[in-house]
Each structure stands twice: as structure tokens, then as C-alpha cells.
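Side project, low priority. Logging it here so it doesn't get lost.
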Amino acid sequence: MYAHGTLRRIEVSGDLQPETDISRGRILERPRYYELRKTEEELRESAKRLGELAAIVASSDDVILSKDLNGIITSWNDAATRVYGYSPRR
């Protein structure tokens, strides 16, 4: 309330700390918005970097392939198709 008696609306976001022997119940700030924003920025940067690496692999003239832990080929680039003569579907 202002000094001249009018009311003012205030929106508060947070968790209410239950009343304890020491405090009378207070609102605890939630820094989650900052953390969420930071995580979103990190995901965007990671996706950008992944796209750049994928472009490098796709445009390389060198054979690049990936294998799983059992040694089975799971993917390869166009250069591997040209050298070995197999399409990725085979």
C-alpha cells in the first residue's frame, strides 16, 4: 500500500517457505528462469555445432564411417559410398 492509502498489485513468483520456529513463512526466490534460459542457449549452441560437424562429414572427400560397440557399421558419408560401392541402405 502506498503512503496515501491506495493499493498496488504485486505479482510474486516463488515457493512459500513454511512457517518455522525461526521464520514467519517467506517467499523463496526461484532462479529456475535463469537456469532454463542458460540451458536453452547451450542447446542452441550445441545444435549449431552438431550441424557444422555433420556438414564437414557430409562434404569430406575422405571415407568417414561410424561403428557401434560391436563393430557394426551404423553410418558413413558419400565418400565411403563412392570408394566401397555400397549405399547406406545396403
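Brief comment: The longest strand covers residues 73-76.
Revisit when time allows.
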